[in-house]
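I hope you will forgive my troubling you with a question about protein structure. I set the record out below, with my sincere thanks for your time.
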Amino acid sequence: MKNILEAPFMVEMIRTCTNMYDHGWDERNGGNISLLLSEEELAPYLDLKNVIRTLKTGFEAPALEGKYFLVTGTGKYFKNVQYAPDVNLGIVRIADGGQSAELLWGFTDGGRFTSEFPAHMMSHMARLAVDPENRVVEHCHPTNLLAMTFVHTLDEKAFTKSLWQMCTECVVVFPDGVGVLPWMLCGTNEIGQATADKMKDQRLVVWAQHGLYGAGKTLDEAFGLIETAEKAAEIYMKIAHLPRINTITDEQMKLLADYFGYKVREGYLDC
C-alpha cells in the first residue's frame, strides 16, 4: 500500500485545514470539513475491507450508502491537523442506510467524526442532487461574516446584495447568492436539515451569530467561495458606519454576470 499521507487528497485536506486556521476562521475546535472520495482514489492507500470500528451517525442517508468521506474529528483543533493527521482526521464509509459509518483510517486516539457530521451529510445529499460533481462541505467561523449578522438584516436578498456590492468579483463567484439562517442550536439534525434545504440552490449558507457553510467541487473551490464572501463582509464592516458615495449598481452587476456567462439568482437584481 502507498503512504496515505502522501495521497493528493490528504495533502490538500491538511493544507486546507491549516489555511483555514491561519485565516482565523477556525479557532480552537471550531469548524469542520468533509471531502467525498471515490473507491478508486482510496484503493491504492487502504485495505477497504478492514473496518477498524463502526460509529453511529444518528441520522439516515440512504443516498450516501457506500460512499467514502475524509472528515475532521469532533473536538479537534485545525491547527493540529498538519502535525497529527491520523488523530485529527478520519476516513469513513457510510453504511446501514446512513445510520452508521465504518472507520477505515484515522481517529487513532479513539475519536470520532465531527458532531456536525449529520449536517455535512445532509448538505452533501442536497448538493449532489443538483450537482453530481460536488465533493466538499466546509464549515467555519469567518469573523466579518459573523459580525455582519449582528448589524445587518438577515433577509437573504438584502444580505446577498450587500456582499455583491462590496467586490466586483462577488456576483461572479457566488451568483446563486447566500442563504441565511437565524440563530439555531448547533450540532442538531434540525439545523442540518435547514442548511441542506438552503443548499439545494445555494452553495453558501450563513448561520447567524455562528458561522458559515460552503460547498464545492473541490477543497479549493469551497475555500475560495468562503474567502470571497468573507472579504466582502470585511469591506462591508469597514464602511457600514460611513456615508456611501459610490456603489456597484444592479445594472453593473448584471453586466458582469452576463459578460462572464453566469446566471444571477432570479429576483435579486432590480433591472
